[in-house]
Amino acid sequence: MTDQTPTSPAVVRTRDALRDALAVWAISGAEPTDRRAVVMTMGALHEGHLRLVRRAREEAGATGQVVVTIFVNPLQFGAGEDLDAYPRDLDGDVAKLATAGADLVFAPTPDVVYPDGDPIVRVSAGRVGQVLEGEFRPGHLDGVLTVVLKLVHLVRPDVALFGEKDAQQLLAVRRMVRDLDLDVDVVGVPTVREADGLAMSSRNAYLSDDERRLALALSRALRGGADEAAAGRGARAALATASGILNGAPGVVVDYLALVDPATVEAVPADHRGPALLLVAARVGTTRLIDNQAVDVVAAPEGSGTPDDAAGQEAPRD
């Protein structure tokens, strides 16, 4: 028995080359039930991305087509953010994708995606893009949705896969697909974490060893809040517990901590029961990290009483 070297995916950089590669697959014996799946990334791939690609292979089937896009989208970076410094390693990314089941990599430059410069017409995330990430990164989700819509048109996938770590982004994409009648299924894939609980992110590479240890406060806070909710202590206690853990972590500067409805990203009331989402964004050193945790708020023990005002959002800590 001989070892087989994984086949590297084809890499295309232009619209015409992408169109040709998609057409070749379509006429090369694809069955009517085969699907094309896309994973949209900004590169600097890690295991979290590769998990998305493996799931894409499952969605597409053995003879389907898995397309990975690698594009650092300038529209979703604000003034003073890390667009120029964002890690880029196309050769390394392609080598990793060879082991994950990708067939095709579309790695355009900005002038390919935006041939006329900054687009005049863009997608608006509406109220979903005005809170939480939208408050601290104005226009960020508008930029995300604009490039996602363009890539859906260019790749023409049957299914698109996104990580649940970017929970607000996933909600915004799903809402755009529904509101604009896009013919694509959106699949969310659970967050991949390091052994110590830190959510995988390309920006983790910016953290020093000391900062990385401090960053673990984010996942600890989310677990603590989820435990409070599951113990029947209510939404407010869940938020307060998570906030206490973050406030006790020197060097962690919180942008927001919120317990929200997973379908709307609106803050849940303190008497909420059922599913919710606990989200956090914080800076450790110069690195901004986000994370979230699904929460099940169960009924409080009888006679304990629960407040009936909004659980809301914890104020940022300076």
UniProtKB/TrEMBL annotation:
CDD domains in the record: PanC
Cellular localization per UniProt: Cytoplasm
Ligand binding (beta-alanine): Q76
MF annotations from Gene Ontology: ligase activity
Major location (coarse): cytoplasm
Known EC number: 6.3.2.1
Function recorded in the entry: Catalyzes the condensation of pantoate with beta-alanine in an ATP-dependent reaction via a pantoyl-adenylate intermediate.
Note: The reaction proceeds by a bi uni uni bi ping pong mechanism.
Subunit description: Homodimer.
UniProt-listed PANTHER family: CYTIDYLATE KINASE/PANTOATE-BETA-ALANINE LIGASE, PANTOATE--BETA-ALANINE LIGASE
Protein name: Pantothenate synthetase
Organism: Isoptericola hypogeus
Gene encoding the protein: panC
